[in-house]
Amino acid sequence: MTIGNLRPATVLIDETAILHNVQHEVARLKKQTQLFAVVKADAYGHGMLRVAHVAKAAGASGFCVALLDEALDLRAANYTEPVLVLGIVPSEYAAIAAAQTVSLPLSSIDWLKQALPVLETQPELPPLRLHIALDTGMGRIGFTDDQTLLDAVAFIQAHPKAFTIEGIFTHFATADDPDDAYFKQQVAKFNHMVALLPHRPRYVHVSNSATSLWHAACNGNMVRYGVAIYGLNPSGDAIPTTPFPLEPALSLESELTFCKQVHAGDGISYGVTYRAKGDEFIGTVPVGYADGWLRRLQGFHVLVDGHPCEIVGRICMDQFMIRLPKAYPAGTKVVLIGQSGDQEITLLDVAKYSHTIHYEIACNLTSRLKRQSINPIAR
Q: Do 58 and 187 have their domain in common?
């Protein structure tokens, strides 16, 4: 997708906010506990390489991604820190991961059997680093029973030139829920299964942002710090307090490209779902659903000159219209996410109106929107 460098619409990333959010969490961690920055999905829409740089400067000692491709992008950018892929990678790419010292998750013995001949064709490679995934209640990936886990460990031990166990982990389904009953069940199952291993791996990790912020780690020594890096409360507002203030890093700004006066009954946008109730000023903003500003945001608002301005009519692919309190010239700033005067729109505000979570809103802001750092950390 072509980046709109010549269009007045910009995602602004405050690097000092990211630095703050990581530094404060690193300072809270127990001695010998490491923080891996989760930078998958282009760092939740904030820019993977930008965030990796700031997170490393703030004390992150490694990175987590969703795709092997993302890990390779970090290596290509000369990041030599540990990188863990969280999603299952097809076994045919095992040698690529080994060659780049990228760690992969393991969820089945079948995967090991498929990866072994791939690795044996390149005996000069170091052993593939594996993190054993345990499904303790998320229902996504991982071993669920004791014997299958032990069989996989035995297979790895029988092939030490191909594989090495670097870590073991699980993911909590309800760490961001005030009710911690299910969370405690998962903790108990994880601790039970870890105790089955003949040796404790280098990394034992269960803590995502929510777990790290609100729960005591269960014998872990690494934190997968994700959404909180970006200043977003993992619970939305279900658990409103955090151990330190999280500083949102992302804002979205544009400008009016056009302003006109309409009269009672005049229709706006596709389907004419809005008609002017009287003499009104309508402004056009050059952002649309192709940028991740979705059609369901009709009726929401943006900020112009400190005033909330309703989005009227259907949001188009590349533009939307707003009702203004008065005539404004083209070039007037429009804040979609962020502050204007004493008014603020947060990612959570957008998410609530859209009946989703703020993670999704941030990730959905497409690459067509140019990104720009503010308060940059020295390179």
A: yes
